[in-house]
Design brief:
Elements (H helix, E strand, L loop, with lengths): L1 H5 L7 H43 L9 H28 L5 H29 L4 H13 L4 H22 L3 H71 L10 H15 L4 E10 L2 H8 L1 H18 L5 E7 L2 E7 L3 H17 L15 E10 L2 H20 L5 E4 L1
Helix pairs in contact: 2-3, 2-4, 2-7, 3-4, 4-5, 4-6, 5-7, 6-7, 9-10, 10-11
């Protein structure tokens, strides 16, 4: 049973022990502030009674100035404690707390408090023959503050040793002396038991609080990490989504992106319909270029022309995409036949002005493109498919008619 009062029912890491030590100091100083004010009030009252009794000559014992000195000493000690506690709070806010120094200061205060009770009790033997001062101080220290076993042994040991050693010199009655020793041993035992019960309970609660705080901290870290991972996954998904809509070679939208853009436009304008111009674009004699200049040169040409088409369609109402191989498409929403023809001609001229050498072309010494356009009002996917087929027919007509030109169909 006593083992449970001495040994903690749980084990703690060094970090947890350090936190418990700091928590205990803070709790002791917090309790001590109220306790010190109470002691100051009591001692002031006792001093006032002593002074009044001395002046009124109530009893000859009131003429003895020793008690007044002890009262004043205790008042000063507690004022000093309040100053130390206030300084601790200031240092705590500035996060410059020397916990070891404050811990030692509190232990010194507690030791002085206990020794004061021993000295006053020895003095009381001449007048009253009581143990009240020591017992009150011992119980106060035992139940108000929290001390480790080692600290409690030192507090009890030094103050009790002083009292035990001094009693034979101030208490002439052997019967009273024996009674004092027995009473002191009983009081010491029960005070120690009470202090250990309170301390073990406090430590258990503090340990639970530390573990709860650590669990909350780990949970917060996990939540933060999960949020970070979620953001990274979201970014990765967005990047994958973007890459899935981009042609790997040219960097412009691919067929899938083009189809999604058309579907989005149909959702917004489908019910009322809208004017759309489509362009089908093909690089002339690209297979011959690729076979003779190599695939690397072919890829470079595709990329260069893709940028020309993409820049021509670089408005919110247009989208250009690579359908595959050397074939491209451009959709100009809200654009009429004339404007579409002009845009197609600008693309054709720009490609010609690039003067990319193509000795194997049957129509021109440089790389050229053929463009077929179609314009119409569409309100659904079927209308769009028909318009795209019409643009493809226009492109076929251009290629059949000599290439490197633009042809429009309605």
């Amino acid at each position: 049973m006593l083992k449970k009062l001495v040994m903690m029912p749980f084990s703690m890491s060094l970090d947890e022990q350090e936190k418990l030590r700091k928590f205990t100091l803070e709790e002791n100083l917090f309790r001590g502030r109220l306790f010190a004010r109470i002691i100051i009030g009591v001692e002031c009252a006792m001093a006032a009674v002593g002074i009044a009794g001395s002046l009124l000559q109530v009893h000859e014992s009131f003429k003895f100035s020793f008690y007044l000195i002890m009262y004043m000493f205790m008042i000063l000690i507690n004022i000093g404690f309040l100053w130390v506690a206030a300084k601790f709070e200031k240092d705590k806010k500035r996060k410059k707390v020397n916990f070891l120094a404050y811990e030692r200061a509190f232990q010194l205060y507690s030791m002085v408090f206990m020794l004061w009770g021993s000295i006053v009790t020895l003095a009381d033997q001449r007048l009253y023959g009581q143990l009240m001062a020591f017992v009150v101080n011992m119980i106060s220290i035992s139940v108000i503050f929290y001390f480790t076993n080692r600290q409690m042994v030192i507090l009890y040991g030094v103050s009790t040793l002083l009292l035990f050693a001094g009693l034979p010199f101030v208490q002439p009655s052997s019967e009273v002396l024996v009674g004092h020793y027995i009473n002191l041993i009983v009081f010491l035992f029960f005070s120690w038991v009470a202090s250990r019960i309170l301390y073990v309970t406090y430590c258990s609660n503090s340990h639970s609080r530390i573990q709860l705080k650590q669990s909350n901290q780990r949970l917060e870290e996990e939540i933060t990490e999960n949020k970070r991972v979620h953001v990274e996954l979201e970014r990765a998904n967005q990047e994958l989504q973007r890459l899935s809509l981009v042609d790997v070679l040219t960097g412009i939208p691919n067929r899938r992106a083009f189809e999604q853009e058309v579907q989005q436009w149909l959702k917004l304008h489908g019910p009322i319909g809208g004017l759309v111009s489509l362009m089908m674009i093909d690089i002339d004699y690209f297979k011959l270029f690729n076979d003779n200049y190599g695939h690397a040169a072919g890829d470079e040409v595709i990329t260069m022309i893709a940028q020309v088409i993409h820049e021509a369609a670089d408005t919110p109402s247009n989208i250009a995409a690579r359908l595959g191989g050397e074939e491209f498409v451009l959709a100009a929403f809200g654009t009429g036949e004339k404007q579409a023809g002009e845009l197609a001609e600008n693309i054709r001229q720009h490609v010609s002005e690039m003067k990319i050498r193509h000795e194997y072309s049957a129509i021109h010494p440089y790389v050229t493109v053929s463009l077929g356009t179609a314009t119409g009002r569409i309100s659904n996917a079927a209308d769009f498919s028909k318009l795209m087929l019409l643009a493809d027919q226009a492109l076929y007509a251009v290629k059949a008619g000599g290439r490197n030109s633009v042809k429009s169909l309605k």
